[in-house]
Fold each of these.
Amino acid sequence: MNGLPTTSRGNVMALYQALESYGVNPEAIIKEVGIELPELSDNNRVVTAEMMDKLLYLAVRSTGDEAFGLRFADFIKPTSYHALGMALLYSPTLRSFCQRLERYFAMITTLDIVTFTESKQGCYLSTTAASEYSDITKRCHSDAWSAWIVNLIRLIYSQNYFPSKVSLFANSESQQERYQQLFGDQITFSASETRIYFEPKTLDMPLPTSNAELARANDKVVIQFLSQLNEADIAVQVQAKLIEQLPSGQCSKENIAEQLHLTERTLHNKLNGAGTSYHKLLLQTRQSLAQEYIKSNEVSLSEIAYLLGFTSISSFSRAFKQWTGISPRKYQKQVLTEF
């Protein structure tokens, strides 16, 4: 975003705390890469790829721990990423957790890309580098993201959770036991891509921390942040306005275009150029939110219809049946009886 890959100040703060846990002076290291501590009080502060690469390299060198990324992840909390951390925490299911992480990962960093894949080869979250790293920092990224994701899933799902298998950039020549304690025995080392695999049957199980309304509220904050961070992403801007305006019903294409200070034709052309459309974004946003609300079992169907901008529960039911092939009541019954 904005050209240069960046990472959030939450990552730098976690690195600061990790270094302290080793008895290393973090201030000197952070200052060495050109970051002043007062700057980290700004929640919108971002750090360039070059700075983060150097920070991680210095962290490994100063601690002597090749698996520094695992310790680093211990200090990344849901609050490290503000609204996104909270949205992930309140996700209704592991599937929505994975989808949300993929969709909004750019709020955390643009140094790496997260993808959620469901295929015959398995269901997994993968992380790939968007920038060139040294092997030392590439291992740190692989270890840190994998450990953070597994730690967060344990927080929202089960303390005894282990992925079905994991692929890591790290080699297996040192500290293998440390990796197995965190990820289990099914680890592929020296992998070209970092992957965390899920058992398909677990993806739609309701999570104990689920709260669809709070997840949605935090999604809105995340989308607005991303919209400001990347003004060129017209689809993100439209989605932000849709989530904001759906409960009021003022989510027509004309109204959204007006709020973005565009004509309808210009909005249409910009979305077309981005490979999408207003109608497609509206359907995607409504369907995604509807299914999350129903799975959470915390909001009535009439309230869901209101929150999604429908004039009546019957119009919402018709739309939901078009999306899924079944009525919202039948879908709700299936979800509740299955779990």
Amino acid sequence: MPDPYFVQVSTAELADLRRALEVVDQHAELDHRYRRMLADSQRTLTAEEIRLTQARGLAKRLLVLVKAAGPDFRSTLPAAAQAALDTGSAQANALIYDPERD
């Protein structure tokens, strides 16, 4: 099993995660610390490839940002944004909890 620190992931494969972060960026009311976390995450996704450990970190950040947006955040979104958030959250969960990615 390869060390996940050295496994590279194409950011093109993380398009669902990127779209979910865009939804949070466009619709969530976040304080400056969460905004900085969001900006850093989006900046990381501008590279062509990132380490698997970075991708997992971004996935965890998405879940934190959604939680920080509030318990009713998802229900306030238009249908297309809800779908993008759900798809991105599913990808985030797969990155975090899927042992096959190692």
Amino acid sequence: MKYCLLTCVLLLVACSEELRSTTPTYQVRHQAFNIEIPAFGELEASKAQFINAPGRRPMTIDWMAEENSLVKEGQVVARFDGEKLTLDSRKEELEMLLLDEDIHSKTAEKYEQQNALQSDKVFISKEYEFVDAFAIDDLRLYSKLEIIETLSNRDYLGAKDEFIDWKKDSIGERIQSSVDVLDIRKKGHSAKYEQHKSALAKLEVIAPFDGMLVYQKNWRGEKPSVGQTVYPEQCDCQNT
């Protein structure tokens, strides 16, 4: 009887251990929860603003912010090289200064020649006074040669006076035409100078709002890089 009872107890214990070892269990603990979906390609933002190259001339990229980085509104995301723009701006400024000198020189030349002609007019008026002072009142008192000489002098002085007036106008028109041409050339250099100044003021590209910076591929599938030359209105990056 004793042996039978002991055998039953051993069998029960063995069965209990077998049941415990075959029951599936899962230990719950606090850990990060991620869902990963494998995919290939590029994400496209539902809201994005393209940022074009500024200015009106090709510009070289000097620095760029890291792509796919988060940027804040007003943050500099790219910077262009301004060395060539500065040199071109100074060149146009020098051309304008040289043209100013030419304009002043032409204007001084006009006044100088006109003043010289005015002096000739004063001299002619004095000669007129001299001829009038010794005018012939009674033609019977002088020979025909003296009368002809006196009248010829008056005609010569009158013609000379008219010629001086014409020459003054001619000099004024000729030199003024030269000044107008120089002024047109100066305006052309001035327009280029203002363009360079405007471009120098736009060397930095600013993020329009908070977001992620993404660079746009060109038609060859290449993204912009430092040292690359980009053209006006060319889209280089977008703020998403």
